[in-house]
């Protein structure tokens, strides 16, 4: 039988993401804290979703500086401070290891592109086999198709510079995806 979770993990890791299968929000907070410490960082920006804010609160209790920019102007003003961002995704596509974020908020989209490290939270129940029914599922989650949709498959890559593959030039150099095994739908901020 086709296992969406295992296929998503396999394809996501093959694309350069690091996919974690996580039990709960506490485990995400602990893992993000370890990632921050491993890179010598102490500042995290979170999107406006309830789950991202909750993880941010847990990390703030652990003395991690949390930035919660609510609009695009704030994100740009704090861009140099934002070392790592935590956002939520509406869907995950098992076939490619892609996460799909749909939002009408400029700030949430900027958080997926500006920092060098991007952490993404996704519920296992929101994994789909392939991209054929993205519009159907986004309408199911948001009630309509969002004004902006981002499909993220691994870290940013380009070969524009002297035909050499370069990671992280046009977006995050590292992408971590946390798939929560139990729970409901993640509504992207």
Task: Note down, in words, how this protein is organized.
The protein is an alpha/beta fold. Helix content is 32%, strand content 27%. The protein contains six helices and twelve strands. The chain has helices spanning 4-14, 25-38, 50-61, 72-77, 106-113, 134-142; strands at 18-22, 43-46, 65-67, 84-88, 91-93, 98-103, 117-123, 127-128, 148-152, 157-158, 166-167, 174-180. The strands form three sheets. Strands 1-12-7-4-2-3 form a six-stranded parallel sheet, with helices on both faces. Strands 8-5-6-9 form a four-stranded mixed sheet, sandwiched between helices. Helix 3 (50-61) links the parallel strand 2 (43-46) and strand 3 (65-67). The termini are far apart.
Give me the secondary-structure topology:
Blueprint: H1 4-14, E1 18-22, H2 25-38, E2 43-46, H3 50-61, E3 65-67, H4 72-77, E4 84-88, E5 91-93, E6 98-103, H5 106-113, E7 117-123, E8 127-128, H6 134-142, E9 148-152, E10 157-158, E11 166-167, E12 174-180
Parallel strand pairs: 1-12, 2-3, 2-4, 4-7, 5-8, 7-12
Antiparallel strand pairs: 5-6, 6-9, 10-11
């Amino acid at each position: 039988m086709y296992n969406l979770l295992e296929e998503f993990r396999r394809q996501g890791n093959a694309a350069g993401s690091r996919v974690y299968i996580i039990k709960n929000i506490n485990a995400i907070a602990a893992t993000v804290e370890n990632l921050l410490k491993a890179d010598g960082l102490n500042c995290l920006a979170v999107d406006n979703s309830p789950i991202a804010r909750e993880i941010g609160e847990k990390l703030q209790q652990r003395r991690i500086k949390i930035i919660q920019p609510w609009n695009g102007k704030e994100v740009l003003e704090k861009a140099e401070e934002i070392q790592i961002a935590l956002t939520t995704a509406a869907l995950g596509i098992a076939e490619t290891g892609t996460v799909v974020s749909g939002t009408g908020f400029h700030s949430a989209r900027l958080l997926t592109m500006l920092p060098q490290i991007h952490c993404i939270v996704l519920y296992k129940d929101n994994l789909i086999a392939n991209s054929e029914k993205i519009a159907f599922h986004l309408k199911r989650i948001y009630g309509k198709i969002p004004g902006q949709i981002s499909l993220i498959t691994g870290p940013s890559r380009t070969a524009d510079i002297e035909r050499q593959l370069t990671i992280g030039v046009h977006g995050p150099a590292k992408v971590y995806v946390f798939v929560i095994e139990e729970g409901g739908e993640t509504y992207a901020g």
